[in-house]
Amino acid sequence: MFSIEEAKQVRQDFWTFFGKRYHRKWTLYDTKLKDVNLKFSMENNQAIISLDIEHDDIIFRHYYFEKFESFKSVMEDEVSADLIFERDHILESGKVISRIYVSMDNVKITRKTDWPTVYEFFYENMDKLETFFWEYKDFIED
Q1: Which sequence spans correspond to the domains of the chain?
Q2: Which residues does 133 contact at the CB level (< 8 Å), separation at least 6?
Q3: How far apart are CA 73 and CA 92, in angstroms?
Q4: Which of 9, 49, 70, 99 could cross-link with 125 by S-S, CB 3.0 to 4.6 Å?
């Protein structure tokens, strides 16, 4: 078991090494759509690549979600057939967002032997999600 400080260091090392291995500028929070973000995360023994719609107004949140959902078959072809679409996803904090994501199960940030596989998963899937996002952004924004 790790102390709080050791766990913090492991997380920091994980993301630092990822950045060194794949040194490029990712879109992430710079989507130019309010409260629509692309994210990397490690939670509950899963590596997750997601498109999160975090707008506080449920009408706007569902509007954007439905726009992305209308591209579901295209997203499955261009990003991953394993994409999961959750109109109302509850974060650990209790906040409700809409999330479109793909995950890799049974990986831990504390298990360094998982890191190369997770890094490859992150790179391949975020690259595809980011490419899709920029290709179809204008249609989603209209």
Answers
A1: 4-141
A2: 27, 31, 38, 51
A3: 29
A4: 49
Phi, psi of 111 (to 5 degrees): -100, 95
One DSSP character per residue, 55-74 reads: -SSHHHHHHHHHHHHTTHHH
In this predicted model, what pLDDT tens digit does every residue of 66-75 receive, in sequence order? 999 999 999 9
Contact predicate 133/38, CB 8 Å: yes
Buried b (16+ CB within 10 A) or exposed e, 20-39: eeeeeebbeeebeeebbbbb
pLDDT (mean) for 91-102: 94
* Placement of tokens 């509007």 in the chain: 63
* pTM for this predicted structure: 0.91
Contacts of 81 (CB under 8 A, 6+ apart): none
